[in-house]
Specification:
With about 1150 residues, the protein is α/β, with parallel strands linked by helices. The chain has 50 helices and 35 strands. α26 (about 520-535) crosses α33 (about 700-705), α36 packs across α45 and α47 packs across α50.
Length: about 1150
């Protein structure tokens, strides 16, 4: 790192010449370099694996010159055999043919190269998105070279299983760019501004995110896998338009030199000209013809036949466009080779259809599906509305090394480019399609809503947001002059074509029109119907039930002593038994899991790790395994048909499984088809508990409910913490269910546990979590009070660089285990293996982000491993992506979740891997069934040729990955304040610690840490996650609606606030809920502001004065009201009486006192306090 830092911004040739240092990124670092440098590439097996010594010694490295403005790259899909093959690599002859065909498709001066960063980039990496960096025209292609592997070594390796096709070729080739067309977007200037403004980064991050060009379209993402995969012309053009959109935004910011951006625009124009010329008017002709000929000619003849047809057309007509404008005559057939005549007759038979469909840049596999649409709809229907293709396109994802054989779905831009090409570059005649036609706008809005759901997690958008996103559409040349506005949408909302595609409603507030895809509405209605049916179910409790409840509470009291709230537990158990639906929420350590241990139940969790945590805790409590079964939701969805319905035909099982997989991958339009199949298989449990329900998204929950009989189910219990991070997918179902229950006044159907069974009430960590989830915005001074003098549950540390952060971790390891001060890798190993057991949850480092200067990736590789990222025995691991596994005979295989995203593992002394998920599967299915899964996981870890792996180092992980887990000790690394630091993220991180949290804060941030926490409170991910599940909500935490006499509708947080508001309105009092006038300066929001006879009064209802943290916080607030704002004499406080009283009458008496100016005088907890 010292060398890289000292040579920052230098030509790569300089450290090579002066230090003989070749950096790990040497493949791409010369893309914008002006000098040649020499590279030395060792065989991949020389760096890792069992052949390391022999390959290092016997195989000479390949020495090659890397030209100016060039990169090394490779299309990794070329060399690997199909999944399931006994061989790891394709035969060498086939590889040579693939390489020749692939490189032959890269044309100097005609092919555009897109430069991008993978998931490890610091801008979009935390969202797991590729990032477009720039582009340029290819000038030269240098073919790959081969290693000289000695005969004996080659024989020894290829005699091993799966290795017989070991390639000799070095998997890389050189791509040289034309510097006159090559550019890289100036992200660095934006990133440096973010680094400089450490204490106020929000605005800088916002600007950076505005100019970043992530690859988010599902139909394009697969083209960026395998490093250097070809793209179709239309996908390339769309990527260039995304880049141009970024440049336009940079110009509006005014931060980059105008001349620099003008130069990028000049080069972009050259690339647009080339890409549109290469695309041409009929880009689909070749693939379409191959598809049409497939019924007549065998596969090995089709490609050659198409090439001959194209050559004949070029010779006789000049180009495809001219050929499609004429009909062949007898003399034309006479001039062509005999073998082509039959093929041309097939084309001529459907010439009009060929001419129309050739406009679209589709793969051969896509034309398969498009022709099926035409068969169903008719060619004239599709010609009149080509956007039918987009809306009716169904497919099974196909991933072939040839892109023309692949299918990842169809995008709006592919239809648009065919019908409305950019007039600046289209050198052909075209009749511009009406961009404002209702058919097209319907597809545009549908695409926007789908993207909002899959990328942002929101289930609807309002009309104004739709218009804003239309304006942001990358093919800006279409809408730039048309100005799609509110009036255009308002007109189309009345048409049947819009009504059948969208649920369009006028919601609160009145002028806010919402748009929702009917497919999303179907998902939400599935959840609503199931929940509503369970809410209606009521059960009675017998004397035996009550006796069992008392026995359970007595047992819990012995263990938790004074921490346990007896009345809370009584209400919990009684209400759970008496209601069909019960939601149990509360922070970590409140005893949610303990509460569900004694009923005959089936527990579902969203992740394998959460499932294992449940099993561990229940095992500690000696639960009866015959009564409580635990499974992930994914495992149930994939395996339930096999295990619970023996009579179901396997064809239906596999159809069900395939539909599940497609829906979870975004094909939400298939839900009704899934339900139709699922009717043949309905699971009939009596009790169902979903733990960690805050992590379950709408789609997963709808699938689960579709497989369960709500008629047979007696109890549905949702357990979770709605204040944690929302799900990765669409919506926030747990939060919305709680909202709905509160809104309907169904108090017996939910409880929020206030107990803390993990810590005594007066602990610093408890106080921190209470501040993050409190009703009122916390003041920085409240955090400062905790940070200044924390108890043993919180420890403060500061660091200014990576070495100092290492020292912090060393001190914590020494404190938590018996590890001596040594390299961190060895200290972690000592702590993990202490006492002969694997203590993987003893200590965990958490970070808000994966990438960046102090992200989890950096802390792992440069911090713990000190720049030596080797998977050696003693390495802690994490799985970063679900890994599925098939078990059973080939014709009756079950697909199970083999290793869950977020699972923590370890490499043991024999280099075998340990994951508790995998051990659990071995116990259930046996070692033989799970052997190939372990082999795949180990291949993911050890394979030197993997471009991206699913297993990573696990010493430091992101807070998101930690959900569903807890750890004895947690080190939370906070290096800056950015949009990543949200209220839910900090709360989730704090609640991962069972015993203690160490706040490791960058020295630039340390003094401002209280303000960082206070600001994060206002940055809520759950609030931003808009849904229509159980109705429209201004806030998911204000479930009580009141329409005032004036017609204004307001929302308040609690039932008692609703009663207060309703009574005030009935008495004719002018009032405002949650006035913000004290927020900015004092971080205070009273419940109500009242105006009576020209005087302003403020009302605070104190709903939880029995809680020590709440009570102390109130007295701090009252001091502010009294001494700083000076309104103590105008402040009324209320608490609920422990006696049964008429609340409304009590409030009316307060109103009477207010109007008469005779408020009751008290000393505590305010000057005017009333019990109601």
């Amino acid at each position: 790192m010292d060398i890289e830092t000292s040579y920052r911004n230098s030509e790569i040739s300089k450290p090579i010449q002066e230090q003989e240092y070749l950096p790990p990124c040497y493949w791409s670092i010369n893309a914008y370099g002006s000098q040649t440098y020499t590279t030395k590439d060792h065989h991949p097996f020389a760096d890792i694996g069992g052949w390391q010594k022999r390959f290092s010694k016997e195989v000479r490295p390949i020495v090659e010159e890397l030209s100016p403005y060039s990169v090394f790259t490779w299309y990794f899909r070329l060399g690997y055999a199909k999944e399931g093959s006994v061989d790891r690599y394709v035969p060498r002859e086939e590889l040579d043919e693939r390489v020749e065909e692939y490189l032959g498709g890269i044309q100097a001066g005609r092919s555009v190269g897109l430069l991008y960063a993978n998931y490890s980039n610091p801008i979009t990496g935390d969202d797991r998105k590729y990032l477009l960096l720039g582009a340029g025209l290819v000038r030269e292609v240098h073919e790959p070279k081969e290693f000289e592997i000695p005969y004996e070594l080659f024989r020894d390796v290829t005699s091993r299983p799966a290795m017989r096709n070991l390639p000799r070729i070095l998997w890389r080739f050189q791509l040289v760019f034309d510097p006159d067309t090559l550019f890289i977007l100036p992200y660095h200037e934006y990133s440096e501004r973010v680094e400089k403004h450490k204490l106020d980064r929000e605005e800088e991050w916002k600007r950076l995110k505005e100019v970043a060009v992530p690859v988010v379209e599902n139909i394009i993402i697969n083209n960026f896998k395998y490093v250097c995969r070809p793209l179709s012309s239309s996908k390339c053009l769309y990527s260039l338009y995304l880049i141009e959109k970024s440049v336009r935004k940079m110009k509006s910011h005014g931060l980059i030199e105008h001349s620099h951006l003008k130069e990028i625009e000049r080069k972009l124009e050259l690339l647009f000209e080339t890409a549109w010329r290469e695309r041409g008017k009929y880009p689909g002709f070749e693939n379409l013809i191959q598809k049409l000929l497939s019924a007549t000619y065998p596969p090995f003849m089709q490609r050659d036949m198409v090439l001959e047809i194209q050559r004949f057309i070029e010779n006789e007509f000049g180009n495809v466009e001219k050929y499609l404008d004429v009909s062949l005559r007898a003399e034309d057939y006479g001039r062509m080779p005999v073998r082509l005549r039959k093929a041309f007759r097939i084309i001529e038979r459907d010439k009009d259809k060929v001419k129309f469909l050739s406009l679209f840049d589709f793969s051969k596999a896509q034309f398969d599906n498009v022709l099926e649409i035409i068969d169903r709809q008719g060619i004239e229907t599709v010609r009149n509305n080509p956007y039918i293709i987009l809306e009716n396109y169904t497919y099974d994802s196909k991933d072939h090394w040839r892109i023309e054989e692949s299918d990842y779905g169809v995008g709006l831009f592919q239809i648009d480019m065919a019908l409305i090409p950019d007039p600046r570059y289209a050198e052909w005649d075209f009749i511009e399609y009406d961009a404002l036609s209702p058919e097209r706008l319907r597809s545009v809005v549908a695409t926007i809503l789908y993207d909002a759901a899959t990328h942002d997690g929101v289930s609807y958008l309002n009309r104004e947001e739709i218009v804003e996103r239309i304006e942001e559409y990358p093919l800006y040349y279409i809408h730039e002059d048309l100005k799609v506005g509110i009036q255009t949408l308002s007109k189309y909302e009345k048409q049947e074509s819009f009504k059948e595609k969208f649920s369009i409603e006028q919601k609160f507030p009145r002028e806010n029109v919402t748009y929702q895809l009917k497919e999303i509405r179907n998902i939400e209605e599935t959840i609503e119907r199931f929940v509503d049916q369970m809410v209606k179910k009521k059960h009675s409790t017998s004397d035996k039930d009550m006796a069992e409840i008392e026995a359970i509470i007595e047992e819990e009291s012995k263990f938790f002593k004074e921490k346990l709230k007896i009345d809370e537990r009584q209400a919990l158990y009684k209400d759970t038994l008496e209601n069909g639906l019960f939601t149990l929420t509360g922070k970590a350590g409140s005893g949610k899991t303990t509460a569900v241990r004694t009923l005959p139940i089936f527990i579902f969790t969203p992740t394998g790790k959460a499932s294992l945590v449940i099993k561990e805790r229940l095992r500690d409590l000696d639960y009866d395994e015959t009564q409580i079964k635990v499974s992930t939701i994914h495992r149930f969805l994939y395996t339930a048909p096999f295990e619970f319905k023996e009579t179901l035909r396997y064809k239906e099982i596999y159809k069900l499984r395939n539909l599940i997989e497609k829906i979870l991958n975004g094909r939400i339009e298939l839900l009704n088809e899934f339900k139709a199949v699922a009717r043949n298989f309905i699971f009939t449990p009596k009790v169902l508990i979903i733990d960690e329900a805050s992590m379950v998204d709408e789609i997963l929950l709808a699938l689960l409910f579709s497989l369960i009989s709500s008629d047979s189910l007696k109890h549905l219990v949702l357990v979770g913490d709605e204040k944690q991070l929302p799900p990765i997918g669409v919506g926030r179902p747990l939060t919305d269910v709680v909202f709905n229950l509160k809104k309907k006044g169904l108090d017996s159907n939910f409880i929020h546990l206030e107990s803390n069974l993990r810590f005594p009430a007066n602990r610093s960590l408890v106080d921190l979590t209470e501040l993050m989830i409190g009703k009122d915005p916390p003041n920085p001074a409240e955090f400062q009070e905790i940070f200044r003098d924390p108890d043993e549950t919180v420890e403060m540390h500061s660091f200014s660089n990576l070495e100092e952060l290492r020292d912090v971790v060393r001190d914590v390891l020494s404190e938590t285990g018996r590890a001596e001060h040594r390299p961190l890798f060895e200290m972690f190993r000592d702590v993990i293996e202490e006492d002969g057991a694997l203590n993987l949850d003893r200590i965990q480092i958490l970070a808000p982000r994966k990438y960046g200067s102090f992200g989890s990736e950096t802390v792992n590789i440069r911090g713990v491993l000190e720049g030596e990222p080797l998977f050696a025995p003693g390495t802690k691991l994490i799985c970063e992506e679900n890994i599925y596994h098939s078990i059973g005979p080939k014709r009756r295989q079950k697909r199970i979740l083999g290793l869950a995203n977020g699972s923590i593992g370890y490499i043991q002394d024999n280099r075998d891997i340990f994951f508790e998920d995998v051990e659990d599967l071995i116990d259930e299915y046996g070692p033989q069934e799970i052997h190939s899964l372990k082999k795949r996981i180990m291949s993911d870890i050890y394979s030197p040729l993997k471009s991206q792996t699913r297993i990573n180092f696990g010493y430091a992980i992101t807070v998101h990955k930690s959900q569903g887990s807890d750890f004895s000790h947690v080190i939370l690394v906070l290096s800056d304040f950015s949009p990543f630091v949200t209220k839910e993220l900090l709360y989730t991180a704090l609640t991962r610690a069972r015993h203690k949290i160490y706040l490791a804060t960058h020295s630039d941030l340390a003094a401002e840490l209280p303000s960082v926490f206070a600001k994060a409170y206002s940055n809520s991910e759950v609030e931003k996650r808009k849904t229509l599940l159980f109705g429209h909500k201004e806030s998911p935490f204000k479930p009580y609606y009141l329409t005032k006499k004036t017609g204004e509708t307001i929302q308040v947080m609690s039932k008692i606030e609703y009663i207060i508001a309703k009574t005030l309105d009935g008495a004719g009092i002018v009032f405002e809920p949650g006035p913000k006038q004290f927020l900015r300066q004092y971080r205070l929001i009273p419940d109500f502001k009242l105006s009576i006879d020209g005087e302003n009064y403020f009302w605070e209802h104190l709903g939880n004065m029995r809680n020590r943290s709440y009570r102390e916080r109130w007295y701090r607030k009252f001091r502010t009201y009294s001494k700083e704002i000076n309104i103590a004499d105008k402040l009324i406080t209320t608490t609920e009486s422990e006696q049964r009283t008429d609340v409304e009458d009590n409030i009316k008496r307060i109103v009477k006192d207010l109007k008469s100016g005779k408020l009751k005088r008290t000393e505590n907890p305010s000057y005017h306090h009333y019990e109601i």
